[in-house]
Design brief:
mainly alpha; 10 helices; 82% helix; globular
C-alpha cells in the first residue's frame, strides 16, 4: 500500500501543478502523511535545476506550516489524535523519550531529528505534546527543514542525475553528516 502511495506521489512530480502538489505533500508529511516530499523534490530538481532552490523553499515553508499543525495536534489533541498516530507508526513511547531529550538537549533535538529521515511528524507531534516552547520549536523547524531541503537542492543542482542514486540510497548518511555538523557547531559555540 505504501509503495502504491509512494509511486502516486512520485508521479505528481511530473504534473503541471507539481509545485502546488509539492507544497501539499510537504505540509502533510510534517503532521500525518507517510511519504516524504523528497519523492517529488528530487525528480523536480533534476528536471529543472534552475528552480531547485525555489522548490526547496516551497518544501521548507510548507513543511514548517505542516509542523505547526503537528505541534497543535500534539498540544491540543494528544490523546484523541496524536497518541493513535504515534502508535500507528510504532512510536507509542516517543513522547516520554522526547520529553527526556528536550529536558537535556532542548532545541538541538528538533535540529537533529528534523534533518534526518526520521519521520518529522513524530518530532512535531511530540514537541506539542511535551509542550516544548513554541517559538523555539518554530525557529528550530525553520533552520532544520530549510537545511535539509536546501542541501538536497544544492546537491541535485550541482551534480545532477548522477547524484540521484547516491541520495536515494544514502540520504540518511547525507543528512546525518549535516546534523553532525550542527551538533559540532553548537558544542563549539557552547564551549568556546
Amino acid at each position: 500500500m505504501l509503495r502504491a502511495l509512494y509511486d502516486r506521489v512520485l508521479a505528481l512530480s511530473a504534473h503541471r501543478r507539481a509545485p502546488a502538489w509539492l507544497a501539499g505533500v510537504s505540509f502533510a508529511e510534517s503532521s500525518f502523511f507517510p511519504i516524504p516530499p523528497d519523492a517529488m523534490l528530487i525528480p523536480m530538481c533534476i528536471a529543472r535545476p534552475d528552480r531547485a532552490y525555489r522548490y526547496a523553499l516551497i518544501c521548507t515553508i510548507a513543511s514548517v506550516l505542516g509542523g505547526i499543525l503537528g505541534y497543535a495536534i500534539g498540544y491540543f489533541l494528544f490523546e484523541a489524535l496524536a497518541e493513535p498516530v504515534l502508535r500507528a507508526y510504532g512510536h507509542a513511547d516517543a513522547l516520554l523519550r522526547f520529553q527526556g531529550w528536550y529536558e537535556k538537549w532542548g532545541a538541538l533535538v528538533i535540529l537533529i531529528k528534523g534533518l534526518t529521515p526520521i519521520p518529522y511528524k513524530i518530532v512535531t507531534i511530540a514537541s506539542g505534546a511535551a509542550m516544548f516552547s513554541f517559538p523555539v520549536f518554530l525557529a528550530a523547524s525553520i533552520v532544520t527543514r530549510g537545511a535539509r531541503f536546501f542541501l538536497l537542492a544544492f546537491l541535485l543542482r550541482r551534480f545532477g542525475p548522477p547524484i540521484r542514486d547516491f541520495i536515494e540510497r544514502r540520504l540518511t548518511l547525507v543528512t546525518t553528516g549535516a546534523a553532525a555538523g550542527i551538533v559540532v557547531g553548537f558544542v563549539a559555540l557552547r564551549y568556546l
